[in-house]
Amino acid sequence: MIERYSLPQMNSIWQDEFKFKVMLDIEMLTLEALAKEKKIPAFIPKRIRKKAKFNLKKIQEIEKKTQHDIVAFVTNVAQYIGADAKYLHLGLTSSDLLDTTLGVQLKSASDILLDDLNRLLKVLAVKAKKYKDMVCIGRTHGVHAEPTTFGLKLVLWYDEMSRNLERLKLAKEEISVGKISGAVGTYANSEPEIEDYVCKKLGLKAAKISTQIIQRDIYAVFMARLAIIGSSLEKFATEIRHLQRTEVLEAEEPFGKGQKGSSAMPHKRNPVICERICGLSRILRGNALAAMENVALWHERDISHSSAERIIMPDSTILLDYMLNKFIEVVNGLNVYPENMLKNLVKTRGLIFSQRALLALMDKGLPRPKAYDLVQKNAMKTWKEGSDFKDNLANDPAVSRYLDKKALEKIFTLDYYLRNVNKIYKRVGL
After folding, report:
1. Does the pTM of the predicted model rise above 0.85?
2. Is 176 annotated in the active site?
C-alpha cells in the first residue's frame, strides 16, 4: 500500500470516503505546488489545509442539484474553507481529480493483489514439494495418457502464477499514473511542474501526455491482466473440479464440518468454491472487454468510459482479491487421495505404456508406421476385451519376435516417466 493511506481491505479503496480523501489531498498538494511556483501566496496552502474537509452527506445533497460529483465535492470543501476557497481547484478540471485519484486507487488495489499472489505462491510451493513424487495419471482430451505426478500439476500452477505476479507488477507500474494538465491536456491554466509535484507526492508518475484524461489503453492493459490471472485461477479450479468427480476422486476441495452439499441429497460434496471461481472469472473477462471498449473516445474526451469504469474497476479488483483468497483456502485445505490415483493409474490395464512399446519396437528396427499398427492393434484389443495390454503384446508373435518378456517388463515401469521430475522442479525454482 502507498505510504499516504492506510487500507485495511480492498473494498475500502472504492468507498467514497477514500476517494474524496485522495481528491482533497490532490487539491492540497496542488496548492502547495502553486505556492512553490509563486502562483499564490506562500501562506495559503497551510491556512487552507487547517480548514479543509468534506462531508459525504452534504456532497450527496449538492450532487442531487448539480448532477456533477466533482462540482459537489469542491463546493462542499469550499464551504469549510471560506474566503480562501477562491484558490481551491485553481487551474484544475474534474478529470485531474478523477484520473489521478484512480491512479492512487489502482496502485493501492495492485498492492493488495500482489500480496495475495505472493501468499498463493507460497502455498503452492509447499504443496508442490509435498506431492512431488505422488504418481498419478496424466490426461489429454480427458483420456488417460501417460504417468505424471500430482506435484507437477502444482508446479505448473506455481510457474503460471509466477508469470502472473510479474504481469501484475508491470501493470501496477503502468497504471500508477496521474495528470494535472487541464481541460484538454495543454496546461493552459497550470504548468507541468504542478503536475510533477502532485504526482510525486502521491507516489505516481505524471502522464507524459494526456488530453482531458489519461488515455484508456493504460487501463485496458491492467484489466486484461486481471482477467488473465482470473483465467489462470479458472484453469486450476477446473482441474480440481474434474479430479473431484466421483469416478475420479483424486483430489477434492475442502469440505467443512457442518457444510451441506445439497438440500435434497445428504451425501453430496460439491466443488462449490472452484465452481464459483470459474463463474467469477467470466466477469473479469467481460470487464476487460469493457475496458478495451473504453479506449476509443471522442476527441480530447467524452464520458462514455466513466460510467463503465465506476463498475468494472472496483468489481474486478474486489473480485480477484476474493478469488485469490478463496483459492488459497482451497489449496491449503485440498484433500488428496493417493490410493485413488493408483487405482486410476492401472485402470486401463497397462495402456498408458503404449508409447514406450512403440519406441521399443522402433528401436529394434521396425518402421514407425508398422510399429504403431502393431501396438495399436493390441491396445484396441485391451480396450475391447478388458484384457491386459502387456499380456496381449507378449502373446502377439509379431511383437514377441522383437520384444521378449524381459524387454516387456522393462517397458512397463513407472520410473522411466518420472526420471526428470527433479530437473523440472529445479528449472521452475522449487
Report:
1. yes
2. no
